[in-house]
Amino acid sequence: MTSSSREGEEQEGPVIRDKRRIDPKTGKLREPAEEPAPEAPANGGTGESDEEVSSLKTQLNERLADLQRLKAEYDNYRKRVERDRVAVREQALGQVLSELLPVLDDIGRARDHEELTGGFKSVAESLEAVTGKLGLEKFGEKSEPFDPTVHEALMHAYSADVTETSVVDVLQPGYRIGERVLRPARVAVAEPDPNAGADDESGDEGE
């Protein structure tokens, strides 16, 4: 074995590093060797490529859109359920209160004839108060404009005292719950007299 071979083997032998913090020769504390800082990723420290970041943003926007759509569907469902609940309640109340309308009519006629006295008066007022709390509303007044959606005209006439078709007498009041009409008001109506202007003109000509 040549001398160059022995030198190569000596160089390839184990490398021993002295990591003692105190120098055995001087007895002083050694300064720690500075380790090189890790290199930062090229894209700002996330370690992810621009394509991955863009993909994550797209998925996030899609999930957000899904959540917004689900929330809108739930809000619509909740509103629809609430409308149905109110409609069912009004329908059930309407069926019950419709059976009481003849009784309320009798009470009204007795009041008009001053026959609502004594115990009958107390019972009548209690019944009217309870039906009012349940949402029953009475309507139909003299001199109000005629509305075919809530009025049923049983009598018709012409009058020079009105400027539009109006209620001149309420034969039977109407009742409703909210927007639901249980019974239209049965009324007598009057329209403006078409000959009123002609009579005035003929009178002026005679003078």
UniProtKB/TrEMBL annotation:
Its main location: cytoplasm. Residues 198-207 have a biased composition (Acidic residues). Belongs to the GrpE family. GO terms for biological process: protein folding. Homodimer. Participates actively in the response to hyperosmotic and heat shock by preventing the aggregation of stress-denatured proteins, in association with DnaK and GrpE. It is the nucleotide exchange factor for DnaK and may function as a thermosensor. Unfolded proteins bind initially to DnaJ; upon interaction with the DnaJ-bound protein, DnaK hydrolyzes its bound ATP, resulting in the formation of a stable complex. GrpE releases ADP from DnaK; ATP binding to DnaK triggers the release of the substrate protein, thus completing the reaction cycle. Keywords: Chaperone, Cytoplasm, Stress response. Residues 15-33 have a biased composition (Basic and acidic residues). One of its GO terms (cellular component) is cytoplasm. This is Protein GrpE.
